[in-house]
Amino acid sequence: MSIANTPKPPYYAVIFTSLHTHKEKEEYDKASARMVELAQNMPGYLGVESVRDPNGFGITSVYWKDKESIKAWRNHTEHKKVKKRGRVIWYEKYIVRIAKVEKDYGKI
Questions:
Q1: Quick one: which of 10, 95, 93 has its CA closest to 61?
Q2: Contact 96, 87 (CB under 8 A)
Q3: Is residue 7 part of a domain?
Q4: Which CATH number covers residue 65?
Q5: Could you read off the pLDDT of 1-40 as tens digits, one per residue?
Q6: Using an 8 Å Cβ cutoff, are 51 and 1 in contact?
Q7: What's the domain range around 67?
Q8: Structure confidence by residue, pLDDT tens digits, 42-72
Q9: Residue 10 resides in a domain
């Protein structure tokens, strides 16, 4: 994984912070990779950054062009099924935050 090369703001970030249960890790890893693949093919997708520590704490930020793109992703049938499974099995705790990026800077 690397730093997402996003366009000039404004754009949106969906930030998913979670604590993994460590249950069914192989299935989780496959589902997670599939979700990244699906998201990358959605209109308005701009990039993703994701990290998880050995204790199961993770943060994934997915960048989107606009709120409509986020809504389409949220309502994607396969994504909805995986989210449900995550709530029941994979995540002890989680929170989703949606933010408008108004400024970014750095070296990529």
A1: 95
A2: no
A3: no
A4: 3.30.70.100
A5: 689 999 999 999 999 999 999 999 899 999 999 999 999 9
A6: yes
A7: 26-101
A8: 999 999 999 999 999 999 999 999 999 999 9
A9: no
Q: Is the dihedral of CA 45, 70, 34, 53 positive or negative?
A: positive
Q: pTM for the whole thing?
A: 0.93
Angle at 71 between CA 29 and CA 31, to 5 degrees: 10
Q: Do 76 and 14 contact (CB within 8 A), yes or no? A: no
- Domain-located, residue 65: yes
106 exposed, middle or buried (CB, 10 Å; 0-12, 13-18, 19+)?
Answer: exposed
Structure tokens at 96: 């989703």
Q: Is residue 43 part of a domain?
A: yes
CA-nearest of 97, 81, 77, 78 to 89 is 81
Specify the amino acid at residue 70. I
Number of domains in the chain: 1
